[in-house]
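Hi support team,

I submitted a single chain yesterday and got back a structure, but I'm not sure I'm reading the token output correctly. Could someone confirm the output below corresponds to the sequence I sent? I've pasted both exactly as they appear in my results page.

Thanks,
R.
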Amino acid sequence: MSLFEHKEFDQHEQVVFCHDKQTGLKAIIAIHDTTMGPALGGTRLWNYPSSAEALTDVLRLSRGMTYKSALAGLPLGGGKAVIIGDAKSIKSAELFRAYGRFVNSLSGRYITAEDVNIRTSDIAIIAEETTFVAGTAEKAGDPSPHTALGTYLGLKAAVKHAFGQDNLSGIRIAVQGLGAVGYDFAEYCHRDGAQLFVTDINPAACQRAAEELNASVVGLDEIYALDVDVYAPCALGATVNDDTLKLLKAKIIAGSANNQLATPAHDQMVMDMGVLYAPDYVINAGGVIHVCSEAANMSRTETDQKVRDIYTTLTTIFSRSKSESRPTGQIADELAREVIANKKAQRSS
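Hi R., thanks for writing in. Yes, this is the structure output for that exact sequence:
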């Protein structure tokens, strides 16, 4: 099967396969669409079982970045990159510099930033070889706090729509993943009166949540079947799938993870179950908004407002989904495509 027939290929403008023999670098950069501006999206370092799975992930993620930036009103297109390997063993300054040279070869069509297993210190090394980076420690810094805030505000919009409640007091939330974003998100929810159930592969993070947030710690596989109001996936994607939907009791799915639905078909399945889904690339847009403050020279005031606009955008999506009896993900995709089509029309006129 060629790239053009790949199930996740969505008229991507450019896909670059990067290999550096000396450092062992294996990476894929996917530029989905640059109508709105240069393609911005983080680089993810993950030990994919195969290069085919890495390709599937980067194609889905880059498309999501296009729609994410469009609905957030940012002057950016969508791109993403993945580096294949175990973060515990392959990280090196030489590898990141080699990767930086590949990013630089794209002459600004792609701007990279932090993502899973990539920190601001890693971005600093990449920046030694290219200026096409964002989220550097000296400027915008770590986008995680804004991602967490946006996810919290998006959850509040979902709770308002589903339960008619303006705060999270008494709302039972199952948080899957307590990384930099997941923990901050859980902290926001705790302050707003939510009852938390948490799980993570890191026992120390769970212990911290138990002590600081009065959270109940559950097993990795127990999180899906809990009798809760909200399932909040804040780790990796595809946790909403055929197997987990059989267990799910929550009435809302709202979290910070990318690609939460295993397939596009699960959008309709979730709606048919009476579950309200906050489209992932809308609710977790706080991070790219934060990074855009550096890439597009946005002020802190403008950045904060765009993060808070996530609440309004999701409210619009939820209302339109209800009135048209169509899945929220489908509505979000259409709204994003409308933004991009309008931009193309402006260019043609």
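A quick pointer for reading it: The chain has two domains: 3-64+78-126, 144-337. Let us know if anything else looks off.

Best,
Support desk
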